[in-house]
Amino acid sequence: MGKVTIKDVAREAGVSISTVSNALNDVDVLNPETKSHVLRVAERLNYVPNLNGKLLKSGKTKMLGFFTTSVSGPYFYTLVESMSRECDRLGYGLNVFVTKDKQVIMSNILGGRVDGVIIFEELRIDDKDIAVMEKDKIKAVFLDRVVQNETMGSIIFDSYEAGYEATKYLISLGHRNIAYISGVDTMFDSVQRKKGYLAALREVQFPIDEDLILQGYFEEEGSYNAVKSFIHMHPGKVPDAFLAGNDLSAIGCIRALKSLGYEVPKDISVVGFDDIDIAQYFTPPLSTVRNQIARQGILVVDHLVRMIQKKEQGKVQKLAGELIVRGSSQVKVRSE
Question: Where is the HTH lacI-type domain (predicted)?
Answer without folding.
Answer: 4-58
